[in-house]
Write a structure and sequence with these properties.
Shape: globular
Helix content: 25-40%
Strand content: 15-25%
Oligomer: single chain
Length: 311
Amino acid sequence: MLRLVIARRQVKAFPSIGHRRRGALIENLAADFTDQTGIEVNVFQSTTGQVMARLESEQANPLADVVISASWDSAESLHADGLLHEYLSPNAETVPDFLKTDHYVAQGVSALALVWNRNSDVPAPADWSDLTDAAYRDQVTMPDPAQSGAAFELITGLLTALGEEATWALMEALADNGMIVPGPNARALNPVLQGAKSVVFGAVDYISLGQQAEGEAIEVIFPESGTVIAPRPMMILASTAMPEEAERFIDFVLSEQGQARVAERYLMPARTDIEALRPTLEELTLIEVDSEAMNAQREEILTRFHEATGS
């Protein structure tokens, strides 16, 4: 049996539509793979931090063959530690170079966005800085970058695009305008879904896009000045006892059938030749971030963020 570990963000949201859709992705991929190959798949899901801790603690007796993470950094870290099996799928031909290496490849890609409740009394924002306007006083939430990898990636993107002075001035202005930083992604999104607040600053887009498609009165807005993406890497552990089966699984996820499943969940498919149900890399204004340099400053950035926002 192939052992698959999913490292996910803490994104469960009221009324749970997005959670169901996200959970169904790996279940559908595993079931489709088994139907096609006869290879059974055992799936374990937890948060990125818990999965990384488990992989570290189980190096002597690893309990995973394939890992799919919500964090590109986790793949880079595992590769740097020599823990990944080298494999580049032939189905990755149309995956952009920056989304694949000889040891890991993107399953799909999400982006960070503004999520606005259409039933609120505030206008739809067009850019990050709009939320400092008095019209949005006490109406904005943001995930805590100390608890949300996606939110941290957004802050690093703003630092890259705006510079330190302007980024921290923006955070201070948002805080002065009553923005709250309640915790992980779900705690920031739930008040907007429920109508208690009006806008999320820095939501993971595919969850909200799925909820919007299911009838939630929200709109996902990609800021004009740019945003950051969050690729979801797939990798095979070097310790696997089933390398051929693991490679077949990677091949399947990158097949037309597998990538169509990814697209169904409002993620961008890793393959550029697969139709998406949402804006793609070519349609978004992207901020390129030096993740290695930013991660080296992680504690300093988090400290400065909490000082600026009073959170």
